[in-house]
Amino acid sequence: MSQTVFVTEGIGLCQRRGGSIKVIRPGDRVLFEADEEHWHGAAPDRLMVHLAINEADTDHDVVHWLTRTG
């Protein structure tokens, strides 16, 4: 009921709703709890390769895609 992101290459950014933007690098692991709104992706002018592991059960979908704002 969560998403775990493992960064394997490059430099990325992630942010939880209401939180600060964090830099993530190879070897970093970020755990997002079930239903926690967040985003993650490559830093500007960089690439990021990552493995995302999603867990789900009957009460929680695997992914809720959000729309970009701003």
Automatic annotation (TrEMBL):
Superkingdom of origin: Bacteria
Name of this chain's protein: Cupin 2 conserved barrel domain-containing protein
Entries under PANTHER family matching the protein: BLL4564 PROTEIN, RIBD C-TERMINAL DOMAIN CONTAINING PROTEIN
